[in-house]
Amino acid sequence: MTTASSKWNVTDIPDQTGRTAVVTGANSGLGIATVEALAGAGAHVVLAVRDPQRGAAAAAGVHGSVEVRRLDLADLASVREFAAGWQGDLDLLVNNAGVMNIPESATKDGFETQFGTNHLGHFALTNLLLPHITDRVVTVSSGAHRMPGSPRIHFDNLNLTGEYAPMKAYSQSKLANLLFTLELQRRLTESGSAVRATAAHPGWAATNLQSHDGSALRRLFMRVGNRFVAQDNKAGALPTLYAAVQDLPGASYVGPDGLGEMRGAPTLVGRSAAASDPSTARRLWTVSEELTGVTFPLSAAATAGARP
């Protein structure tokens, strides 16, 4: 396995010829950088995007085999439609799409938008596609899962009704991404599946994600940080790509190796105690099944992705 000290980059991605990947939120930022790298290595990549026109414009600039399909993670009907339209094997699912620090709002199904999009949408998508997945599920989290204030899953008020704060909601959703990965891997292992669940975070990457912040002061701070501190989107996508193609243990978490994990080459990183709690992960999974109506599709007798 290539180590961070050798400055792993896209040229280290193994040949992806014959493989198929889905990348959510793929029309800009980390998503399009992930698409470009995978397609450049030979994979056929599906850009799963809310706006197909913007997706098509982004896909037009990619060298390699790509296609665009509509997916709105804030609408469970759209998630089900996307999954129902999938045929054949899917080697890699990259749960990249997300919203960050936005004003209080709700998804079409009535969930707080950051939790509903960043976690519940990807939870439903992953489980609906899982019978097709043959290799890897990578979910993009964030260092915000350990923000000051001890982020936790607010099981008594997941929508944060009456106590909403943009960063509080974002931190909860990113913590949920890691707990989801932890429990998904436990279930995959228990079912005898060879599919692996990993997670990654980009450090500080300059993307459009920060431009929708509900606070004007934070937007200004982000603009300054994007200019003087952040990595570009190609560097920010490296942890995701590393988590997608390297031979890593299930439930691995990848981030930059630099100071504060803000920038640098991809390497395995730690997570908060809250993100490592298996009992909380199981509880979140149960609640997520109840909210979405989507359940884990594999059993010990499953053949999809089963070890030989």
Structure commentary:
With 308 residues, the chain is α/β, with parallel strands linked by helices. It is built from nine helices and eight strands. The protein has an eight-stranded mixed beta sheet, with helices on both faces. Strand 1, helix 1 and strand 2 form a beta-alpha-beta unit. Helix 3 runs parallel beside helix 4 and helix 5 crosses helix 9. The radius of gyration is 18 Å and the shape is globular.
Write out key terms for the chains shown.
single chain; 308 residues; alpha/beta; disordered C terminus
Rg, alpha carbons:
18 Å
Per the principal axes of the C-alpha atoms, what is the gross shape?
Answer: globular
Question: Mean pLDDT, rounded to whole units?
Answer: 90
Write the element-wise H/E pattern from the N-terminal end onward: EHEHEHEHEHEHHHEEH
Uncertain stretches: 1-5, 301-308
Question: What does this entry show, briefly?
Answer:
With 308 residues, the protein is an alpha/beta fold. Helix content is 36%, strand content 14%.
Give the topology.
Layout: E1 20-24, H1 29-40, E2 44-49, H2 52-59, E3 65-70, H3 76-84, E4 90-95, H4 113-129, E5 133-140, H5 166-191, E6 196-200, H6 216-228, H7 233-236, H8 238-245, E7 253-256, E8 266-268, H9 278-292
Parallel strand pairs: 1-2, 1-4, 2-3, 4-5, 5-6, 6-7
Antiparallel strand pairs: 7-8
Helix pairs in contact: 3-4, 4-5, 4-9, 5-9
